[in-house]
Structure formats: C-alpha cells, structure tokens
Prior knowledge:
Blueprint: H1 4-15, E1 30-37, E2 40-42, E3 46-47, E4 50-58, E5 64-70, H2 77-86, E6 99-103, E7 113-117, E8 122-126, E9 144-149
Parallel strand pairs: 1-4, 3-9
Antiparallel strand pairs: 1-2, 4-7, 5-6, 5-8, 8-9
Bound molecules: copper (II) ion.
Amino acid sequence: MLHAASRLPCLLLGLFAVPSLSCAGAPSFREVDIHALDYAFRVPATLPPGLTAFRFINEGRVLHEVQLFRFRAGMSAEVAGKLLARDSIPDQDADPWGSVLIASPGQTAVAQIMVPLVHGELYALVCEFRNADSLPKHAKMGMVALLRVE
Ligand SMILES: [Cu+2]
C-alpha cells in the first residue's frame, strides 16, 4: 500500500520540474516585487525572460489585488497599453488563464505567482476591486500596469 506521505517527494518534484532547475536542488528563478499603492502599481516596466516569482506587497490603505495575465501573441505594447487604460480587454486579446494575488493594507500576500517569462510577451496587471459598489474599480483609478518581457 502506498501512503500519501511516500508520494509527496514525487509530487513536489513534479511541481518544480521546469527546465531552468538544476538537478542539485534549489530552483533558479528571479524574484520580482509588485507594489500596490492607492491607486497604482509600482513594478518594473520590463523584465528579462526566465522563471520569475512575483510577490505582491500592499503599501496602500485599502485591500488590493493583482490580476496577472498575458496578452495574446503578436499584440503591440501600444495597443495593449490602450486596452489597459480603457480597462476593457476583449477575451480574444488575452489568454483565458491568469493568476490573482490579494493583500490586505500593509501586508504581503502569502502566496506568489511563478511564471516562465518568454521574450516578447506582454503581461497585464490589473486591480478590479472597488471601495464601494458606487465607486469605480481601482483599475479605473490607475491600478493597471503593462509588463514587457525583453
Ligand atoms: Cu486595488
């Protein structure tokens, strides 16, 4: 009989089985901080390709999220920037998947988003929270950012 505990190393190995890992052990990745402010993101505009762990730090006074998703291949940074500024991104212009981190004021999200960045990709960062139903989404107040992989 196979116990759950005996399968754990195999499961962990599967989770971290990416090309940039060395067989010796520790995964090799870059750590990048996404800072949430009231109401903007502070994050590098460009990053190099490679496995990247995004950390989310809320330096604001209200709850924030970061939705991180990739624009479709071939989209220009100019068009992506315009779509973000309008906070209106058609489904066909972005991948159907994405990741979200949420952090309370003054806190850092416990989880991180790990992404294998590839040269030429464009990523969107968006916060769609509102402070009240009658108020605009944070994205409309400036909480959008475009990240280019170069
Ligand atoms: Cu927000």
